[in-house]
Amino acid sequence: MNLKRCLLILSLIPAGIACKKNSEADKQSPEIPAPPAVYSLSGLKVDGVSKGFSYYGVSHSPAIELSFSVPVSTGSTRDNIRLRDASGAAVPVVIDTSHGDSTLLITPGSSLKPAAKYQLTVSTDLLSRSNGKLSAPFSVQLITAIDSADKFPRISDVQLLDLVQRQTFRYFWDFGHPVSGLARERDTSGEIVTTGGSGFGIMAIVAAVHRKFITREEGLARIQKIAGFLKDRAHRFHGAFPHWLNGTTGAVAPFSAKDNGADLVETSFLMQGLLTARQYFDSADPAEAQLRSDINALWNGVEWDWFRRNQEDVLYWHWSPDHGWAMNMPVRGWNEALITYVLAASSPGHSIPKSVYDNGWAGGSLRNGGTFYGVTLPLGPPMGGPLFFAHYSFLGLDPRGLKDTYADYEQQNRAHALISFNHSKYNPGNFYGYSAENWGLTASDDIAGYLAHEPRNDNGVISPTAALSSFPYTPAESMAALKFFYYKLGDRLWKEYGFVDAFSLHHAWFADSFLAIDQGPVIVMIENYRSGLLWDLFMSAPEVKTGLKKLGFQSPKL
Questions:
Q1: Residue 438: CB partners within 8 Å, gap ≥ 6?
Q2: 3-state SS track over 112-154
Q3: pLDDT for 290-324, tens place per residue?
Q4: Is 408 helix (H, G, I), strand (E, B) or coil?
Q5: Which is nearest to 334 in space by CA: 401, 416, 398?
Q6: Strand locations in 425-554, DSSP E?
Q7: Longest C-alpha distance within the chain, in Å?
């Protein structure tokens, strides 16, 4: 059959027949309705501001505005929009609509807590009016603003300094180990005591006697207990102490797998404190004379020169009876260990020559000379490093007028503190809460454990000890920080042993811990700022004068 004939036959088929057949086909294959179209978030504002999905310093009754590409089914909002606090607890919300239900306005049912973290989550089961699903879930992080009201009545600056020293001192006095009298490493350490932190604590006891927080007799008795325990029970290695001890038995508590022997730097912090106490308890009273004798025995027993490891021109930080020199950590500057070389040069029987200082301590990357935030830094890493570099050695070493071939140490420490201050003031990392009142980066507890905070390693965590222990270098800036910590954040920071170890307004995180190596410098450096007491005492030791001169230092006290 040709094509013409086929077309002719088709044209003769009645139209009704064709329609009937199509109708039956329709009944057999009905059209499947298309699924509801997905829709999307088109706008997000918190308190009228659009800044992505994280908001800092929000009001305590924030208005959260969510705009969508289509109207939303208001019946599905209750189960699919949640506001929770940092613990995961649900926070009731009120949800209103506008713009034909395409915009939701969400407000908490009651005021949110200040300086706290909240999260608003929206699931894909939030439906549109046509039952479409949200294209993707999302969450909004909210960090609320602090409560700017004063948390405590205003007192004079002198009274505030007294209060901070007295309260912080309780860590060493009320919480000192009952057997040894030594300072526990932290408030959860139990039997573990710290040698370096105890050196800071001994200096804090001297300051407390001076401020009449305790009597001279009470301070003497506590330091007698400490010295007696160190002399009679504590493990020593060539006269040097480990980082940690058991506070009852005196046995080593390993700091790490191979760090179970001598720690020369921690020993130097301890000796700095003991020599300061020896100079303070200077009367002819038999008990004070016995204390001086015990301290001299401990001081003279440290074989500083042995830690040169086969007469090298450098001191080594660690030695283990099991692992020898395996830690292999030479003590080179700039860091917290200047005091180690000063005491090693000062030792009456185990002194080091100046070449060890010049080639060991100063032979590394000591010098800087760069300018940061308009401040010239003589020594150390870029931006200065953590602020404990300017504190630990200078609890006893008086930096005022202290100079040698390498630096003016008053200038060094002030520059370091100012750089840390300016870093928070200018806040290049855009961390919420940083300011000229909220500053100070040093090693401390951290959100994720422990961290040496400094401008090049900054995650938004402030350590109160950093600014407070810098009082001698930055008195106005440190006082502003103290008032902010106490008056504005005191309900979160101020506890039984002074200020907690660290906090972050950016992360709405507040530590609940206290560490000896952070609490001690607060008391001691505030005292040095106020009276120069600990500086005067330590620098009065004749051996220290000899050692500083040997290394080429100049000071008004030499």
A1: 424, 462, 481, 484, 505
A2: CCCCCEEEEEECCCCEECCCCEECCCEEEEEEECCCCCCCCCC
A3: 999 999 999 999 999 999 999 999 999 999 999 99
A4: strand
A5: 416
A6: 443-446, 449-452, 494-495, 498-499, 503-504, 509-510
A7: 138
Q: Which residues contact 264 (CB under 8 A, 6 or more apart)?
A: 240, 304, 307, 315, 316, 317, 318, 331, 340
Instruction: In whole angstroms, give the CA distance from residue 53 to residue 141.
Output: 6
In the chain, the amino acid numbered 84 is R
Q: What distance lies between CA 261 and its chain's CA centroid? A: 27
Crossing angle of helices 195-210 and 216-232, rounded to 10°: 160
**Taking the model in full, what pTM does it have?**
0.92
Note the pLDDT of residue 17: 35
Q: Which residue has the tokens 């057949």?
A: 21
pLDDT at 36: 79
> What is the structure's pLDDT at 9?
34
pLDDT score of 8: 34
pLDDT, tens digit (0-9, with 9 covering 90-100), for 114-129: 999 999 999 999 999 9
The distance from CA 67 to its chain's CA centroid, rounded to whole angstroms, is 39
Q: Which residues pair with 81 in a beta bridge?
A: 122
The C-alpha atoms of residue 79 and residue 219 are separated, in whole angstroms, by: 63
What stretches in the chain show pLDDT beneath 50? 1-27
Residue identified by tokens 């501001």 is: 49
Distance in angstroms between the alpha carbons of the first and the last residue of the chain: 127
Handedness of CA 401, 403, 409, 415 (dihedral sign): positive
Cα separations (Å) of 133 from 39, 121, 426, 464?
6, 15, 44, 48
